[in-house]
Amino acid sequence: MAHSVKLKAGDDFPSLTATRLDGSSVTLGAPQGDATWQAVFIYRGKHCPLCTQYLNELETYQQAFADAGVDILAVSADAKHQLEAHLEKLTISFPIAYGLSENAMKTLGLYISIPRSEQETDHHFAEPGLFIVNEKGQLHVVDISNNPFVRPELGALTRGLAWIRNPDNHYPIRGTLDY
C-alpha cells in the first residue's frame, strides 16, 4: 500500500503554482504586498457548500491576518470555469486560484478524494488543508483534514498567529521532532 508523505514542520515549503482567473501564475507560500508570511488555504472546490461558507467567513478575518503580517491565498483543483461559477457564491477580496494539480496535492501531503458522482465534480480533489509559510519560506503551521467538516476555527487561528508573530513570545516552530 502506498503511503502519502506529509510535509514536516520547519521544512522549506515546496515550490508549487496555481493559476489566477486572469491567467497569471501564483506561487503558493510566496506572500504578496506588505505581508511576510502567507496562509495557503486549500479547499475542495465549487461543489462543496462548506468550502463556500468557510471562504466567505475567511473574508471577515482578512484584516486580522493582515494585522499579523499574514497574506491569504485560497486554492483548489477546480478548472477555470468552475472557479468562475463559484465566485457567484463567494464574497471575497483575497486572491483565489485554480488548477492545483494532483501531483501538487501529493507533494503537500493532502488527502485526495474521488468524486461520488459527475454531479459532484469531474475531477479528483484535495480535502481541506492549511499551510502557513514564514518569511524564511519554511512551513510554520500545518493543518490537513480528510473531510470538509474539520477546519481551523478562524478566530482562534488569527489570535494564535498574532501571538506566534509577536517577537516577545519567542515561539518556535512546533512539532519538529524527527521519529
What is the fourth-level CATH superfamily? Glutaredoxin
- What is the correct CATH architecture? 3-Layer(aba) Sandwich
Order of secondary-structure elements: EEEHHEHEHEEEEH
- Straight-line distance between termini: 21 Å
> Spans of 5+ residues with little confidence (pLDDT < 50)?
none
Q: Give the total of beta strands.
A: 9
What is the total domain count? 1
Compute the average pLDDT. 93
- Shape call: globular
Give the class from helix and strand content and strand pairing.
alpha/beta
Pfam family, one: AhpC-TSA
GO molecular function, one term: peroxidase activity
Keywords: Oxidoreductase, Peroxidase
Protein name: Thioredoxin peroxidase
Outline of the structure:
With 179 residues, this protein is α/β, with parallel strands linked by helices. The chain has helices spanning 49-60, 62-67, 80-86, 102-107, 154-165, and strands at residues 17-19, 25-27, 37-42, 70-75, 96-97, 112-113, 125-126, 129-133, 139-144.
Please describe what this structure looks like:
The chain has helices at residues 49-60, 62-67, 80-86, 102-107, 154-165, and strands at residues 17-19, 25-27, 37-42, 70-75, 96-97, 112-113, 125-126, 129-133, 139-144. The protein is of the alpha/beta class. The chain has one domain (17-165): Glutaredoxin (3-Layer(aba) Sandwich). The strands form three sheets. The chain has a five-stranded mixed β-sheet with strand order 5-4-3-8-9. The chain has a two-stranded antiparallel ribbon with strand order 1-2. Keywords: Oxidoreductase, Peroxidase. InterPro entries: AhpC/TSA (IPR000866), Thioredoxin-like_sf (IPR036249), Thioredoxin_domain (IPR013766). GO terms for molecular function: peroxidase activity. Residues 7-166 form the Thioredoxin domain.
